[in-house]
Amino acid sequence: MAEAADFQGMSPSPARRWLRRTGALLAGAPLLAGLLQLPAAAPASAASGSSTVSVDINTLTPSVPTDGDTVTVSGTVTNDSKQTVTDAQVDLRVGPELSTRSDVDSVAQRTDFQPGLDGTIVGGKYVKKFAKLTPGVAQSFSIAVPVDELDLGSDGVYQLGVSLTGQTSAQQWQQVLGIQRTYLPWQPEGADTQTKTTVLWPLISTAHMTAETGSNAEQTPVFLNDDLAKEISPGGRLEQMLSLGKALDVTWVIDPDLLASVDAMTGAYRVESGTGTVAGTHQAVAKQWLADLQDAVTDKEVVALPFADPDLASLAHNGTTVTGSLSHLKDATDVAATTVQTVLHVTPDTDFAWPVNGAVDPSIVKVATSAGADKVIARSDSLEETAGLPYTPSAARPIGGGTTAVVADARLSTAFQGDLTSASASTLAVQKFLASSLALNQQVDKERSIVVAPQRTPTASQAQAMAVAVAALQGGEWTQTQTLASAAAAKPDASATTKVPPASAYPAKLRKQELSKPSFEQIAAVQDKLDKFKVILTDQSRVVTPFGRAMNREMSTSWRGRAAEAQSYRDGVRNYLDSLTNQVKLIDKSEVKLSGRSATIPVTVQNNLVQGVDHLVLRLTSTSPTRLKIGDDDYEEQKVTVNGGHSQTVKFTTSAQANGQAKVVAQLFTEDGQAYGDPVRFDVKVTEFTATVMLVIGGGFLLLVLAGFRMYKQRKRAAQREAEEAGSDGPDEAGEPADGPENPEGPEDRLTEESGTRPGADDPEQPSDPTPDTAAESTDPSGTGERVDR
To answer: What is the pTM of this model?
Structure first.
């Protein structure tokens, strides 16, 4: 064995390991022959007892050892049975090399101990012994072994197991009572061909800000809750993502809504609490997080998703038939770059779209690229290989129409899902990720570009495991870091699949989580109401901007699996808009009594907003024009402008055509003819000829009759005097005396004088046309039963 280095094609270290293994096999041949003569029940018994004790590997350092390193494995063993385990010993087992990624997967699927597959014991002093293991009590172990003692062969991935052997009172022979397996990537020297690897590091959260803002000039934002403060505080999920990511060479994938929300927290903000709001108090935390992020992304690649990370699949499957849905995606894309530049002072790449889990179909690709993106981040379990390639091709795939699918590797991208709060689960995830990456690199001696796109919102424990794995990967000898833009621009593999799967292949589980068509219809209804509302505002930005961003959040991917919360958020946006639009309204009116042929009817417009409104038209319509006319027709319109916090009364001229009750409708319209708000309906009771008016008219007629009679008597006397003055001494033709005694005034003459009638000498005064008996209105709203004659 001293001449091991003389074996052709072998370095001294691998040759020595090969001889050690050969010697071990030869030495074990008699033992193996003896085992073959044991009863068949013995191996079965050994296998059946391998779940008696739980073995957890909590740490394995270094994750990727090299020549001269010492591998340290630590963890716990716990007796899960009701019997005491005696003569227990923890051993390290080096299994066979795992040549394919499928082999790596199969290791994690095995549970019971399987002789042969679970390798040979390192033995010697590299063990940990326990006199006994009490039921339910965890015992710690730590074994440190020089890597040379592991007898690793050629570069590759090896199964590393930790087993516990012992015996119980029921089975009094040494057997494997528990085992845990992990992976040991072995690449002590630089690989001939390295894999270019891009790791996406997502900073994405859920929707936190509402559409509501304060009435002050700063428009103080209102948050749903204080959960975002928890996420960015020390130990929080986003704080962990930031602090871990800044030490890595990764591509930052950021939702601009997260930046806008944290930026809003740096100033005054409020948080919903019960039926009101309370002042937010985490300004310092927000400022620190943003400052750290600005430092972390300096000179790094930043990819900005559309604002609020819209759910592209939901939009493609349920939203495209709803008018205006795609315009929200365009708005979200347009505002993304500006938001990132404003907050982080870097120019992001906005050419990438990222559907949920990288699952694509033709409609998703069409929607994803409709807002300007020309690259879609897919995943290999969606865009699966169909050409039977024996290796994983590069990420970039031309899928037609000038669009590139950047296909992330599914195994690497999903390596950190699930519960990783335990050290054992986290360590296993890290080692499996590294093992899968090394196995991928060894598939073919061909340079490839691989993308890792993890889950959008990793937990703090998942983020910690990701960081450990990525740090080890970037410190390894088989990969080199690459930006996402470079991966997308890399030369595609001519044999790789470029056909996008049909809609029928979209995962049913993901489809069940999508936003429904009624969700998009509700968003469209809010947009329609906002469009009508904004045209009357003197400062549209105070309303359009916060509601526009809120509607982006309503389409967010973060609502998947949270249908009730999504509905509550949409209801909140709609209800708040309703409350604002209702601040501009008509004051209700009760019945109006109109006496006379004409009158003015006042209608009051109230504006409780902090800003003025204009471009409004108030229309007053009579539904009974034969009884009551408004202006010269059955309706009249007048423009309305009302300052913030004020009311404006508009007066309409009316004319009565007949007695009775007329129904009148007051309605606000925008200048383009769209009805605004609810109409106000009220009755107008027309009483043109009342009893009082008839009495006045009757009295006036009687005075006219009496005045006429007096005039007749006066003319008759004048005629008599003229006849007398003409010299007639006898009776006239009428047989009346020529100069009879003057008759005293009769009662009709006294009535005329008392009434104040002063007849003219030649043309008696005629009564004028009746004047309007309804004077100009007060500017105050009409009260109950109000007569419009004040």
So the answer is: 0.80
